[in-house]
Write a structure and sequence with these properties.
Structural class: mainly alpha
Family: Belongs to the TspO/BZRP family.
Subcellular location: Membrane
CATH topology: Ferritin
Number of domains: 1
Organism: Fregata magnificens (Magnificent frigatebird)
Number of helices: 7
Distance between the termini: 57 Å
Strand content: under 5%
Helix content: over 70%
Main location: membrane
CATH class: Mainly Alpha
Largest sheet: none
CATH superfamily: TspO/MBR protein
CATH architecture: Up-down Bundle
Shape: elongated
Protein name: TSPO protein
């Protein structure tokens, strides 16, 4: 019983690790560079993002635990459903370094478009295994849809500086 509790917590906390590292490594760039970007009127306030990601990471982490548990741990049946989940999590964690760290809006856009596809694939692979886990991913997919539209708008409205030009 105690061991299952540890797995539940571990899976639930795991997504937060990359999210926290992404924030920590890019925290100085956010108020400086990000604030100067042209953003659409519907862009959420900056203070909403940490709260939203805390809720979303918790939901997706717990959902991944449900899938892992239902498939009997790291079995051969878990390779595709948890592999898709791991791949989407890696792309999720890669977005802040592309966007905030490298200021590479095009790579951030490519990343989030691939991320969208992997999240949909993850949810499709999870649906027959655990519908609750799949439903826990719905808010994440909704937020990603908004974040994708926001990334597209920021990419379009903020042409990247050509090398050699000062900011």
């Amino acid at each position: 019983q105690g061991r299952m509790w540890a797995y539940t917590v571990g899976f639930t906390v795991l997504p937060h690790v990359g999210g926290f590292l992404g924030w920590f490594l890019n925290r100085k760039e956010t108020p400086v560079w990000y604030e100067k970007l042209k953003k659409p009127s519907w862009c959420p306030p900056r203070k909403i993002f940490p709260l939203a990601w805390t809720v979303l990471y918790t939901g997706m982490g717990y959902a991944s635990y449900l899938i892992w548990n239902d498939l009997g741990g790291c079995s051969s049946k878990a390779i595709i459903p948890l592999g898709l989940y791991g791949a989407q999590l890696a792309l999720n964690w890669a977005w802040p370094p592309f966007f905030f760290g490298a200021h590479n809006l095009k790579m951030a856009l490519i990343d989030i478009l691939c991320l969208d596809g992997l999240v949909i694939g993850t949810m499709c692979s999870w649906y027959r295994i655990n519908k609750v886990a799949t439903l826990l991913m719905v808010p994440y997919l909704g937020w990603l849809a908004m974040a994708t539209c926001l990334t597209i708008r920021i990419w379009k409205d903020n042409p990247e500086q050509k090398p050699g030009k000062s900011e």
